[in-house]
Amino acid sequence: MQIKPLGDRILVKPLTSEEVTKSGIVLPDTAEKEKKEQGEVVAIGDGEKIKKLNLKVGDKVLFGKYSGDEVEIDKVDYKFLKDEDVLGIVE
What we know:
By secondary structure, the chain is mainly beta.
Protein backbone atom coordinates (compact mmCIF):
# COMPACT_ATOMS: atom_id res chain seq x y z
CA MET A 1 0.00 0.00 0.00
CA GLN A 2 1.34 3.44 -0.89
CA ILE A 3 0.34 6.59 0.95
CA LYS A 4 1.06 10.13 -0.24
CA PRO A 5 0.89 12.72 2.57
CA LEU A 6 -1.11 15.83 1.71
CA GLY A 7 0.10 19.39 2.02
CA ASP A 8 2.85 20.13 4.53
CA ARG A 9 3.01 16.65 6.05
CA ILE A 10 5.51 13.80 5.97
CA LEU A 11 5.12 10.12 6.78
CA VAL A 12 7.81 8.85 9.15
CA LYS A 13 8.65 5.36 10.39
CA PRO A 14 9.81 5.82 14.02
CA LEU A 15 13.10 4.15 14.89
CA THR A 16 12.90 2.01 17.99
CA SER A 17 15.74 2.08 20.43
CA GLU A 18 16.36 0.22 23.65
CA GLU A 19 18.37 1.86 26.34
CA VAL A 20 20.71 -0.27 28.48
CA THR A 21 21.80 0.91 31.91
CA LYS A 22 25.38 0.51 33.17
CA SER A 23 24.34 -2.58 35.11
CA GLY A 24 22.92 -4.20 31.95
CA ILE A 25 19.20 -3.64 32.54
CA VAL A 26 17.33 -3.04 29.28
CA LEU A 27 14.81 -0.19 29.45
CA PRO A 28 12.09 -0.71 26.82
CA ASP A 29 10.48 2.08 24.79
CA THR A 30 7.52 2.02 27.16
CA ALA A 31 9.66 3.30 30.03
CA GLU A 32 8.76 6.89 30.84
CA LYS A 33 11.28 9.09 29.06
CA GLU A 34 11.07 12.65 27.83
CA LYS A 35 13.56 12.19 25.00
CA LYS A 36 13.05 13.28 21.44
CA GLU A 37 12.42 10.58 18.88
CA GLN A 38 14.02 9.77 15.55
CA GLY A 39 12.39 8.41 12.45
CA GLU A 40 13.04 7.70 8.80
CA VAL A 41 11.12 9.68 6.18
CA VAL A 42 8.97 7.32 4.10
CA ALA A 43 6.88 9.80 2.06
CA ILE A 44 6.69 13.57 1.67
CA GLY A 45 3.75 15.85 0.85
CA ASP A 46 3.92 18.57 -1.77
CA GLY A 47 3.16 21.63 0.38
CA GLU A 48 5.28 24.79 0.17
CA LYS A 49 6.45 24.69 3.82
CA ILE A 50 7.62 21.07 3.63
CA LYS A 51 9.52 21.77 0.39
CA LYS A 52 11.53 24.46 2.20
CA LEU A 53 12.89 21.80 4.60
CA ASN A 54 14.63 20.03 1.67
CA LEU A 55 13.74 16.60 3.03
CA LYS A 56 14.00 13.48 0.93
CA VAL A 57 12.84 9.91 1.41
CA GLY A 58 15.35 8.04 3.58
CA ASP A 59 16.39 11.06 5.69
CA LYS A 60 16.44 10.54 9.44
CA VAL A 61 14.64 13.31 11.32
CA LEU A 62 14.24 14.32 14.95
CA PHE A 63 10.77 15.10 16.33
CA GLY A 64 9.02 15.46 19.68
CA LYS A 65 7.87 12.37 21.54
CA TYR A 66 4.19 13.36 21.37
CA SER A 67 4.28 15.01 17.93
CA GLY A 68 2.22 13.91 14.97
CA ASP A 69 -0.54 11.37 14.49
CA GLU A 70 0.16 7.65 14.77
CA VAL A 71 -1.20 5.26 12.17
CA GLU A 72 -0.72 1.54 11.53
CA ILE A 73 -0.32 0.41 7.92
CA ASP A 74 0.24 -3.26 7.09
CA LYS A 75 1.02 -3.94 10.79
CA VAL A 76 3.81 -1.33 10.81
CA ASP A 77 3.56 1.82 12.94
CA TYR A 78 4.08 5.20 11.26
CA LYS A 79 3.63 8.84 12.21
CA PHE A 80 2.25 11.71 10.15
CA LEU A 81 4.19 14.86 11.05
CA LYS A 82 3.57 18.47 10.08
CA ASP A 83 6.44 20.67 8.95
CA GLU A 84 6.66 22.36 12.39
CA ASP A 85 6.94 18.96 14.14
CA VAL A 86 10.32 18.27 12.48
CA LEU A 87 13.08 19.57 14.76
CA GLY A 88 16.07 18.63 12.61
CA ILE A 89 17.77 16.20 10.27
CA VAL A 90 20.13 13.61 11.77
CA GLU A 91 23.34 13.33 9.74
